[in-house]
Amino acid sequence: MSDGWVPEIRPTDDMSAEERQRLVSSMRPEDAEPVPELHEVEVPDELKERIEAAMAKYPEVRSASLPALWAVQRHYGWCTPDGIRQAAAVMGVTPGYLESVATFYDLFRTGPVGRHHVLVCHNLACWLRGSEDVLDAFCEAAGVNADEVDHIGASSEDGEVYLKAFECLGACDIAPMASIDERYYGPLTPDDARTVIDQLRAGADPIPDKALFGRETAGGPEPEPDPRVKKGETNPVGPGREAEEATGG
Amino acid sequence: MASQTRMLFRHIDEPGLASIETYRSLGGYRALERALNDIEPDELLTTLEDSGLRGRGGAGFSMGKKASFLPRGEMEKFLCCNADESEPGAFKDRELMSKNPHQLIEGIIIAAASAGAGWAFIFIRGEYAQTADVLERAVEEAYRAGYIGENILDSGRRVELVVHRGAGAYICGEETALLDALEGKRGNPRLKPPFPAIQGLYGGPTLINNVETLSNVPHIVKNGADWFKSFGTEQSPGTKVVSVSGRVQRPGNYEVELGMPSRELIFGLAGGPFEGHKVKAWFPGGSSAPVLTAKELDLPYSFEAMAEAGSMLGSGSIIVADDTVSIPHLALRTARFYHHESCGKCTPCREGTNWTVKMLERVISGEATPMDLDVISSVQDNIIGHCLCVLGDSMAMPVGSMVAKFRDEFEAAIEAGRDAAPRPLDESPTDVKPVPLEAVR
After folding, report:
1. Starting at the edge strand that comes first in sequence, how are the strands of the sheet with B252-257 ordered?
2. Residue B13 with chain A: CB contacts under 8 Å
3. Fewer Cβ in 10 A, N or C end of chain A?
4. Which residue from B95, B169, B247 is facing A104, i.e. has the nearest CB?
5. CATH of segment(s) B239-322
């Protein structure tokens, strides 16, 4: 910096926009995009409200960067450069910062993708139960390249389906499984995969009988409770008072 | 006959359990009332420590001891509930949160009150969108009922609770990476010490506990440490929700007393392998745990027994591989996961996971020599303990154990691959094709 200004090392959350601009330009003099001024960026009201609500929930504003990116993704379908810039303006951070966050996480899309998101688990438990065949059937039905699906994900030509092979989704009890538009389904067969793609294209609710939510636990109906558990439940006041009563009586 | 002991899973399929009315009608939130009005915070900490409750997220560290590490005094302290359940094979927290969110919320508020934390966060992985919706509704209900917020139940205590959704990164289950993600950054682990209990979220003292650990808290507060210790073994008291998956007949979550023979869990509850098959290898604590073999099926399922056998109980997730599974392929599938999830901050993990994947691919495609197995082992040895967090170790331990315990199978794979691979000279028969990487399962 020509004026000899040296940035002070401290959290940027309570800096003014001008201070931030100086800080950023001191780091990357040539190509830094400054914090966009809110009045220069047009932000859809709904998006702005969501981001501001998220900012109000945390003790520090920057914690809202994940919720803000979620809001952008919900609004535009993916984290568009414009959307990121708008969120940055609302939050008072640089677009580059939000972009660095967005590219770190697997669920944020930084390129345009198909409308329905299908994430097929191919981790250990699903792989042990045939997820590869299910994934192949998905790829074939959607008409997308399996290699791409394995790496960054791929969208069908009609723009209806975005398909990605995903690491463990945390539902190994219904392996092989997939997350379809943020809902869990399983166990899937290659036939299910073809049905799902057809149903998504037709705008229908996919395979409702394979939905995970509302399903009973694997251990079956409630067994007769252990006597110790039962004793705990009939103990309305806790051990301290029970002991007092016992000694008192 | 193997039996379940349901404490956390009690009434799990009761209709409407996720609502505050049903939860209260089954005795819910009484522990919180007791904790806030009748017990001093120090006494709460003592009870938790006396109960011997060990962290259910993987490390198995005493929960009460961890909470007592937080400095005393007037300062902003934080509690984070780690609900970023991403360990392959683990799905217990999902079921606990989706079906009984108030049990967790009650545990969080009690733990926050005992540690003096004014802010609590549930960091839930972004993939669990449906579960996060359930949690958010439950938190709202609890706010309205006065169990969260300012002056809880007229005790003068304040705890705010925020549900924070992650966005798909296994590394965020590591406690310091979780803190970075919660601060709105890329989820990279931090150097320890300082440990989060001293300097965590926003630089303040922070207590981080797993969903299942915190769900145990109301039961301990309500019934006392001695009651809790009547379950399980001396060093692993309590029950454990065990996720059993892989090649078994009835995969799912089973709540059992710790110390139950592993065979009873895998065969009695989960139904064992499919007709005509045998257990070949099993991960006792998620994909990060060194694999055990059929010989070790009779070990008791507890923290201490698993550690003695050279593995770990971890998050309590059993993945079973039967005799149809090729171990080199299993190793490759495991290594690929960690390679994908390595955040790239530390060189041994970033490069080591990559090399391991490449070497295992060579083993399977027939381009390796038996010496490569020694190289694989030495790479694993050089990852363990050399990074900021244990993600690299989590690959090195299972892959290293597979190479050590099933070395003959890796050697056979190398031989078979070499026989089948096309040779550069004309001597090879023309009708053999290279083995496709994923062909053997």
Report:
1. B252-257, B239-246, B317-322, B279-283, B292-293
2. 216-217, 221-222
3. C
4. B169
5. 3.10.20.600
